[in-house]
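Quick illustration, no need to memorize.
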Amino acid sequence: MPTPYQTHIGSFTRKSTFFWAAVGATVGLANLWQFPYLASLHGGGLFILLYLACLLLVTLPLMVTEAAVGRYSRHGIVLAMDGLIRSARQSRAWMAVGRLSILAAFLVLSFTAVFGSIALAYVFFGALGRFSGAGEAEATGILAGLVSDPRQYRVFMGWHIFFLLLVLWVSAQGVVRGLERALRVVVPGALVLMLVLFALAAWHGRIDGAINHILAMHPEDLSWESLKAALFHAFFTLGLGMGVWAILGSYTTPQTRLKRSILAVVLMDTLVAILAGLMIFAIATDGNSFDGERGFSLLFVSMPVTLAQLPASQFVIAAVFLLVVLIVWTTSLNLLEPIVGWFREWTGAPRALSVLLIGLSVWLAGLASLLSFNVWAEERMGGATMFRWLELITGGLLIPLVAILIALFTGWCLTRHLSGTMLGATPKLFAGIWFWVMRLVLPLVVAWIGIQYTAFSLANLCSNGNVAAWCDQPAAMVSEDGEVPARDRPFAATPAEPEEKAAEAEKTAPASDQKSPEVKENGGKSGEKAPKQDDILYDSV
């Protein structure tokens, strides 16, 4: 292996840039297509309080640790771990932490860019009036024509390339001229656009109904499943385990107050999720309820149909999906940075060349996910498409494993003096909480999340007709019709819910979620469908 490149690869010039970059990294699609659904299902305001508690007590210490590791070493996660291993005189096997985190970031970026390309296409579809007067069948046909039609996959690939070029062009400009300038403009701009859209939704919609769904306290809906939902979303929404926080920490200025900035990022991420939920439910009408909807069906089917009823709908739909593009774009920039930083530190290659090579690799890997929705849709291994396996591996294995290893290494392998130096000036109470959370609480909780994510996801594949070995369900776990009971289905894809709400969601399920909707739109063949709810595990995006 070549000698690692030792020169520092860049830094921010303003102390507030870390905050804007971190907000761009944490605010993702799950804030739009998962959090509102979870809040409305699990107690409204009580779920938000439970979610905040999970953020502050479980995941915030890990966020601080990853960022502090990068700031202390002034390197990306791989060389940062190398330095800490040498200082603590630990086994070189711990180097797997950094390498697995880079692999996780690479895989997540590969399929996140696919969703960005769909949103980018929808900006133009909305502006050109493709959704004017469209119902659910027509909107499902538009999505299927873009994503699922095997004869149109080259068009989908074109949007994919377009989106990736937007990401790579900014990254190639460098840390200051590219990343810092873009994030300081785009992230605040996206937040302003969200506020404008929220005001529009409140003006033309039903803000009282939205508040009842998202903010009102519903203790009767709070259950053990609510805690599971809060833990899952709190862990996956913050971009942990992928080297993002380490590289951003390494770029911070000496004046940046790291722990305060991270706390502000957590609160901002929660605020954005709440605003997104209020906006979504405010524009819902009696005939287009969003109860029980999430993911593809919410964002790319039901939302355009409902927005098409508003005045100047072409502008509104284009603006909404522009917001989605900006969210995915900033997320992609932050996911790309630890990969580029690692490659530069490993090889010493100039930034432009590094971005080009990494970008080409991400594009090739992304084709596996992109083609899983159309040309390779029927090519399944163990009952799942390539995309589904990539997401399950990252969400169920790599990200939890990296988080566990970081917690164990910093909690058990570093001396108290070294960990205290790495954290910097810290109140004794926070230092004590951090120490025991990293040692005991976080490894156990994250291991449970990873196991649940994987086991429930595999069980869901069985409910979809999979014949793999793990589908030999015990008789008690399978109902008479061969379906896996709702409580045993994967949480991320099919969260358990009260029977009354499950029945209601089944009745109001959009066309894209029915068992056999036929679409003949944009030349699609009869039987071609838009992606279904279970085609994606929403927490990991």
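The chain has one domain: 15-463.
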